[in-house]
Structure formats: C-alpha cells, structure tokens
Design goal:
- By secondary structure, the chain is mainly α.
- The chain has helices at about 1-25, 30, 35-40, 45-50, 50-75.
- Helix 1 packs antiparallel against helix 5.
- The longest helix has 26 residues, at about 50-75.
- It is flat, with a radius of gyration of 15 Å.
Amino acid sequence: MFPILVWVTAIVVGMVMALNASFMLASPRGWFKLPPWLRAQGVLTEAKYASGWGALQVRLCGAFMLATILWVIWAMFFESR
C-alpha cells in the first residue's frame, strides 16, 4: 500500500509542477491568474514579474522546470542500469 501512495503522490506533484512550468513558459501573466493554491509563486508579484525582465526570468524558470521533469522521466524509463 505504501509504495502505491508514494507513486500517486509523485505523479500528482509532477503533474502540478508540469502545469506550473507550462504556464510559466507560455505566459507569465497567465501564470499569475492561476489559483494561488496551484501556482506556488512564493514571493513573486505580478507587478514585477509579469512583463519585461521579470517575465523572462519566469519563462526561464518554467523552461528549467520542464527540462528537469523530462530529464527525470528519461532517466527513470530509458537509462540502462
């Protein structure tokens, strides 16, 4: 039972991270419109990070998160042991 709970938790966390990262990469302004419990923005404010240099930083963070998720999935399923 415990391994199933761990896998379900990992999948849910991964999906939420992927959703956040996708919104961050596609539209930082749209990311700020997500519900607060979903976006996990921390101390970032829309006024500072929705446009300009701040938006580029949010997009880079989203790209890094997606790349990390894909790297972990690749390592789990395709790397030889």
